[in-house]
Amino acid sequence: MLLILGTTSTEIKRGKFSGAICPKCRKVSDFDYFVNSKYTYITLIPLFPVGKEAIVVCNNCNEIININNLDDAIVEKLALENNNLKNPIWSYFGSFLVTLSIGCRKISFRK
């Protein structure tokens, strides 16, 4: 059996904000942002989440902007909006299967 181990991500929130200056094109612009949940998997079965990442894209120059290069007020606003985001429940599916398998084996060995 071939086991493939890796990490990938899925989008858990999408939003927009405006009125900030893009550090790349130096113009006041609208921005799209995406919050992604990263998770570990074995052969396409998600095991557990390993973190979140935010991606900000300028609508004027279509460049991905490093959050550290944005104005502190914008970064704080994004952090407040996205602070309570939860990882999708399905990202724990593999961990649930492993726990269930171990539990079933312990029960079957007691009989």
Rg result? 20 Å
Q: What distance separates the N and C termini?
A: 30 Å
Q: What are the segments in which pLDDT stays under 50 over at least 5 consecutive residues?
A: none
Strand order of the largest sheet: 1-2-3-4
Helix- and strand-based class?
alpha+beta
User: Count of DSSP E strands?
Assistant: 4
Q: What is the succession of H and E elements?
A: EEEEHH
Name the overall outline: elongated
Bin the strand percentage. Answer: 35-45%
Helix percent reads 25-40%
Q: How many helical stretches?
A: 2
| Main pleated sheet | 4 strands, antiparallel
The chain-level mean pLDDT equals: 86
Oligomeric composition of the shown chains: single chain
Give structural notes:
This protein is of the alpha+beta class. The chain has two helices and four strands. About 25% of the residues lie in helices and about 45% in strands. It has a four-stranded antiparallel β-sheet with strand order 1-2-3-4. Strand 3 and strand 4 form a beta hairpin. It is elongated and about 70 Å long. The two termini are about 30 Å apart. The model has no long low-confidence stretch (mean pLDDT about 85).
Give the topology, please.
Elements: E1 5-21, E2 28-42, E3 45-58, E4 64-65, H1 72-82, H2 93-110
Label this structure with key terms.
111 residues; alpha+beta; elongated; four-stranded antiparallel β-sheet
